[in-house]
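Example record

One chain of 83 residues, shown exactly as stored in the release files.
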Amino acid sequence: MDGFARSPRQLGILIQHHRKARGLSQTQLADLAGLRQEMVSKIESGASGSRIAAICNLMAALDLDITLTPRTRRSSADIADIF
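Predicted structure tokens for this chain:
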């Protein structure tokens, strides 16, 4: 599943979706990424103050990359359809 995120919450939802698609619990993903389960939970919920390094560790554990692209003019209904 491809997706885009414009907020910490949207990024967390995408990470959570990929974790579940791989059949991993938060604890299992945390172990793969060298993090604590609590950090995975915070990132998936979009909590403020999540370290970019932790997010990158999770993405590496899920074999995901970050791609930066210019924003498009989408309506909020289009964005909601992704989730």
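Notes: The mean pLDDT is 88.
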